[in-house]
TrEMBL record:
Residues 248-450 form the Histidine kinase domain. SMART domains: HATPase_c, HisKA. It holds the Pfam family HATPase_c. Its EC number is 2.7.13.3. It catalyses: ATP + protein L-histidine = ADP + protein N-phospho-L-histidine. The chain crosses the membrane at residues 12-36, 64-81, 88-108, 114-131, 138-158, 190-213. Coiled coil: none annotated. It is an enzyme of class 2 (transferase). Keywords: ATP-binding, Kinase, Membrane, Nucleotide-binding, Phosphoprotein, Transferase, Transmembrane, Transmembrane helix, Two-component regulatory system. The keyword ATP-binding applies. This is histidine kinase.
Amino acid sequence: MAEYKNNTIPGLIGIFLLTYGLFFPSLSAEWVSFIIDRLQESMNIMDSGQLLIASFAYISRNGFLYFLIYFSTLLIVSALAKNTNSTAFSLCYIAATITAVFFINQFHGESSSYAPHFLSLGLLLALNTYITGQRYYYLTFAVILFFLITAMQCLNLIPVLSKWSFGADDLAVSLKTADSFITEDQLFTALYFVLFAIFFLIAVIFALLVHLFNMQITTLKRFQVQEKELKETRFALTESKVYEEIHSLVHDLKTPLVSVRGLISLIEMKYEKSEDKKLKDYLTRVDHSIEKMNEMISEILYENTKKEIHIDEFLRYVISHLALDDQKIRLEMEVQENLPCIHVNKIRFARAIANLLENAIISFEGKAGFIQIDVKQVNDTIRFQIRDNGPGIKEELMQEIWKEGFSTKDSSGIGLSFVKRVVENHHGSIFVSSTPGSHTQMDIYLPVSSGQGGAHDDIDYR
């Protein structure tokens, strides 16, 4: 729909300008009368100044007329053709423009010569190859067209070019005749050759400058894309290496734990017949602690390791890992009664919730703030809502915050991408809403554990 509108508007403008251009010779009768009056006066008093005024008026009038024709046909043809640098576009543009010029000549008797128009179109299309695809293509084309059309109208008044069909219309012939009579062709030949060179060079230089500027912009954008890809690759490698090292270290912890557990078993066997109940109690508690550590290591190593956990217990575990002592933060927590358990990887999901809370705390930058945690059941999901009254997130960054490596605090940028990955690994979804200067709210929806009567496998809650 957007492309349709983009093509339609230039096309409609082109039709309007073309219609106006076709009627312009009739509408500019006073303009022509002015030229004829100045021409007659110059002949009467042999005044080259009046002749120059008449010639400038002629160039202005014809320049405006053919600017309308050339530009309107460009708008119409470009609305029909997708590629303004194709051969089909060039042929259609030449055909449309020459047809428009033909009707003007037939109905208004402007000029019967088409050679200057073919030359103009050839030069114009040659310069068009340097500007096609530009962001401000129509504006750039209009500027080049203005200088080129003006240059070509100067050629119409150079007497020596008359034999090549330049300046074959009645006004141009009359002006050149007067110049021959007053200055013996000296004035128009010198003046309009210089003006032609100036306007033509301006058109060429402008097209080249726009082309070079566009190349610089394209190169800059390419470098920015490459830099971004390099940064993402470097980040991925770093994260992969760090994760691998952590994984290896955590895995290595299992070996001494197995040894400790074996030693505990030997001690239990040795003192099996002992009457020391306190010693047996200590050994049992040590064994339970080792078992718990084993479970935690498994959850760290294997993200699909999950278990049932009460939400109150889970939230206490999360809060215990937050450093709130030196903060001016007021943390409120509201949990709906009788909520079912959640089936999560406790370590990873707790880290995800902690990341959101830590981001909220950091956003206050040491100032007083308010964070609210609200947990309740919504249909067949458990919703974790974390809302703070911090500075909020700018609208243009709302889609960027989930990308790996993105950060506004010179941090690693792992936080929110990790949160999203963990939530999705639990078949959940996460949403963010924020108003700069007011608040930020994160909503995480987790499926109710299947053990509590709610299905969650392979369900997309997003």
